[in-house]
Amino acid sequence: MNKAIENLVETQAFAMKVRPKVGGFPYLAEAFRAAGITRNLWSLPSCQSVYYTKYGAVVQQGSSLIPDGMSEIAKFNKEALIRALRADQEGKSTFSEFLKSSWEAGVVGYDVDFMRRTVTYYGVLGESYVEEYPAVDLGSEN
């Protein structure tokens, strides 16, 4: 296993350990940031995730949201996306449910910038919605 993958795997395990069940994304993001992971690009519906790390880039492939291999892309719906975000932040959905709800809201990808603490969600026609997330202290969670 190369250093970039090893670092990502270790960081993901640590982040899952320290993040609270409700409102956990900022903790996950801060763990990535502290480990030198600067950015995470998600492509929906393929659920491909690319991480930019201090050791190089890593791709992680998830399960597609469209089992039949072809689907119409929904019109970007900012309000539906925000509902999906809030449900996830309140612990009312799983990550898989969040991804599915985002896709149904017309999101074709999103970009997590761990240095700026922002997530930008994109529609197929270039529409976007940016959400900031707070800095957290991982030291108080161990």
Structure described in brief:
The protein is α+β, with helices and mostly antiparallel strands and about 140 residues long. The chain has helices at about 5-20, 25-35, 80-90, 95-105; strands at about 35-45, 50-55, 55-60, 110-115, 120, 130. It contains 4 helices and 6 strands, in the order ααβββααβββ.
Describe this structure as you would to a colleague.
The protein is of the alpha+beta class and 142 residues long. A 6-stranded antiparallel beta sheet has the order 3-2-1-4-5-6. 26% of the residues are buried. The chain is built from 4 helices and 6 strands. It has a single domain, classed as 2-Layer Sandwich (YdfO-like fold). Helix 3 runs antiparallel to helix 4 (95-104). It is 34% helix and 24% strand. It has helices spanning 3-18, 25-34, 78-89, 95-104, and strands at residues 37-43, 48-53, 56-61, 109-113, 118-122, 128-132. It starts with a helix and ends in a 10-residue tail after the last strand.
Compile the SSE list and pairings:
Elements (H helix, E strand, L loop, with lengths): L2 H16 L6 H10 L2 E7 L4 E6 L2 E6 L16 H12 L5 H10 L4 E5 L4 E5 L5 E5 L10
Antiparallel strand pairs: 1-2, 1-4, 2-3, 4-5, 5-6
